[in-house]
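Replying to the earlier thread about multi-chain prediction with a worked example.

Input:
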Amino acid sequence: MTNSDSGRPVINAIEDRVAAAYGWDSLDKPVLR
Amino acid sequence: MRRLITALVLLLAAAGVHTAVDDSSPATMMARIEGAQSPNRQGLDPLTLQQLMERFHVPGVSVAVIRDFEIHWTKAYGTADVETGARVDADSLFQAASISKPVTAMAAVRAAQDGKFSLDEDINSILKSWKLPAGEFTRRQPVTPRALMSQRDTASPS
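Result:
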């Protein structure tokens, strides 16, 4: 959860980091370039 | 000598198992998420969580990770109130926003399961404090809980 209207990118980044740390590849997303 | 080697191998194996468990400890996982990411997959990976919050002007964040149906760890970052400087903690309340939709749907389905109403009845027979005004579309087909929850209908007091 975030307390900002612009929290979505932070939430997405945290989800990506959690998925990477735990090896949850079902949450993998395309790599940004 | 053979016994000594066997004992040493078992000891190392046990140490290896111990290390593997420690690698997924809450403290280790928190550190991985808070720090810059390695390998760097571009995008926002070079930033720490603190830097992410600063870049997107997010004062407070609360994280809960559920693993194997149990909360593995929770941690809060930043401020809950920028005026008072009060810190966010694990009990801070946040606006649920669209998370309320699946929660409401779950409660509605459970209420229907308990026989409190049918998913296919007119929502005006269920609503108490506000009713959906009649209109061209509701005359043809009443709005039902099933239609709302499958996003085939909408109802708004505004």
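The two ends of chain A are 27 Å apart (CA to CA).

Feel free to reuse this layout for your own posts.
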